[in-house]
Amino acid sequence: MKDSVETYLRRRIRKDGAVHLTLLDPEEVKPGSVSAIAEKVQSCRTCAVMIGGTTLVSTSHLDEVVKSIKGAVDIPVILFPNNVTGISRHADAIWFMSLLNSADPYFIAGAQVLGAPLIKMYRLEAIPLGYIIAGTGGSVGVIGRACPIPYNRPELAAAYALAAQYFGMRYVYLEAGSRAEEHIPAEMVRTVKKAIDIPLIAGGGIRTREQVKEIVSAGADMIVTSTVLEEIGEDKIEAKLSEIMKGIEEGVNNKEV
């Protein structure tokens, strides 16, 4: 890729209005079969593949998964690490993220301090991101010791997001948590988007075309899906992603902000 991953992402957002990212959990896939999944999501116009999970995985397995995906697709592979063990030299970029509403300083800055030298040594492109957990938080909220923002307090999410922007972070990710029963509400997306000038990512619990349309209409620039792909058979991935992409297109055509 000639451009940086971030330049590519922003160009796609400007061109399409909003984009889709596929999140794959390295613990849920095998290096020998993940390449076929990656080819399918690329054919459905997903913007990039994110690699990350809630619990720990061996670095050697992570490396093999990343290499397998890289060998199968042309779109960027972006690490979405839950800890220092989530860093692989074979990826294109890494979300250099801080879990802003964690009660544990380790997830706000500690892990980042430990990971920064590795990121530099591996020459990964680091993309600063403010990570905010809302709703019940799911397993990621437990692992990250987050204090999830209630869905009925969107102004708190907006304050966190604005703080992320003022810290110099270039993206905000509103996360409902893995396998969340309820996705981030449109009102929270709308309130956060009005408060910031940087791209807004929404993920967790997003499963249907109508949900995607609602969240994109409210202002989300990037939609992340993962669990919905794990819950269906591999033969149904393309149909499900086509449905999600239609929701993005419809949401862009009805964007409020």
Features:
257 residues, alpha/beta, TIM Barrel, 10 helices, 8 strands
What does this structure look like?
Helix 2 crosses helix 3, helix 6 (154-167) packs parallel to helix 7 (186-195) and helix 8 (209-217) packs parallel to helix 10 (237-253). The chain is α/β, with parallel strands linked by helices. It has an eight-stranded parallel barrel, surrounded by eight helices. The longest helix is centred in the middle third of the chain and has 18 residues, at 105-122. The model has no long low-confidence stretch (mean pLDDT 93). It has one domain (5-253): TIM Barrel (Alpha-Beta Barrel), CATH 3.20.20.390. 45% of the residues lie in helices and 16% in strands. Helix 7 links the parallel strand 6 (171-175) and strand 7 (200-203). It has helices at residues 5-16, 31-43, 59-70, 105-122, 138-143, 154-167, 186-195, 209-217, 227-230, 237-253; strands at residues 19-24, 48-51, 77-79, 93-99, 125-133, 171-175, 200-203, 222-225. It has ten helices and eight strands.
What is this entry, summarized?
The protein is α/β, with parallel strands linked by helices and 257 residues long.
> What name does the CATH topology carry?
TIM Barrel
Structural class of the secondary elements? alpha/beta
CATH homology-level superfamily: FMN-linked oxidoreductases
Identify low-pLDDT runs.
none
Strand content: 15-25%
Helix count from the secondary structure assignment:
10
